[in-house]
Amino acid sequence: MALTGRQWLLVLGSLVVAVWVLMVPWGEARTPATIGMPAVLFCVMPLGALAFVAGRGWTALFHRVRSRDVLLMLAIAALNLVVTLLMALVFTSTHHAAANPLFDSLTTAGVFERILTFALMVPQLLGEELLTVLPFLALLWWLHTYAECTRRVSVAWAWLLSAIPFALVHLPTYDWNLMQCLLVIGTARLVLTLAYVISGNLWVSTGAHVLNDWSLFGFALIGGPVAQ
Q1: How far is 181 from 168, CA to CA, in rounded Å?
Q2: DSSP, res 169
Q3: What are 138-171's pLDDT values in tens digits?
Q4: What Rg, from alpha-carbon coordinates, does the chain have?
Q5: Taking the model in full, what pTM does it have?
Q6: Domain residue limits, the chain
């Protein structure tokens, strides 16, 4: 269903608030009972805003996962691992690259903390997919409706531009290294977005993203110490 410009602004505004909720320090409010709250709110808030303006139309983002969708998840995850590693090698050959601090924290974490971290990746990565796909759809609507671009050109520009917010929210994680976020993280985002462009199913892009991140952090943990 078509949304108006004001409705899209409300949805995109909810993404800004959701990112703030995810990234703001919770301080004493972060307890064992609420430790997963930021990740959950990160995906629930934009979905709630979309449901507010679109009614049941928000469910159009999600479809039943079929066997071919699983194969697409695996293919995109594998492709992204290869592309990410190649881009990281190229980038580090000429620039300083910051490491994700989660690698170090997982290495020294206990078994329960590791399991919890991997479990909470699921709602957070669903939120990251919304952070990309909702701007992608908003840009697609604007480019096709108001800029009068063809659908193919609109998809291409929306695919490229929607990777920028994803790259920028990773700045605090990678020591505010703008080039690294735009080139390495942004390129990885372009690959992951292909899962949605091809399937039109947010479960597929989320599944590919989860498989990708679980693989990256899982490989890093092989042989790593476990805190008692």
Answers
A1: 7
A2: T
A3: 999 999 999 999 999 999 999 999 999 999 999 9
A4: 18
A5: 0.91
A6: 66-221
Sign of CA dihedral 34, 204, 13, 162: positive
Q: Residue 220: its pLDDT value, please?
A: 76
Residue keyed to tokens 């479990």? 119
4: Cβ–Cβ under 8 A, 6 or more apart, which residues? Answer: none
What's residue 226's pLDDT?
Answer: 41
Report whether 41 contacts 34 (CB < 8 A). Answer: no
Q: What is the pLDDT of residues 100-121, one digit of tens each?
A: 888 888 888 888 888 998 999 9
Q: Is residue 2 helix, strand or coil?
A: coil
Question: Using an 8 Å Cβ cutoff, are 106 and 187 in contact?
Answer: no
The answer to whether the beta carbons of residues 96 and 175 sit under 8 Å apart is no
Instruction: Enter the tokens of residue 11.
Output: 């949805």
Q: How far apart are CA 181 and CA 171, in angstroms?
A: 6
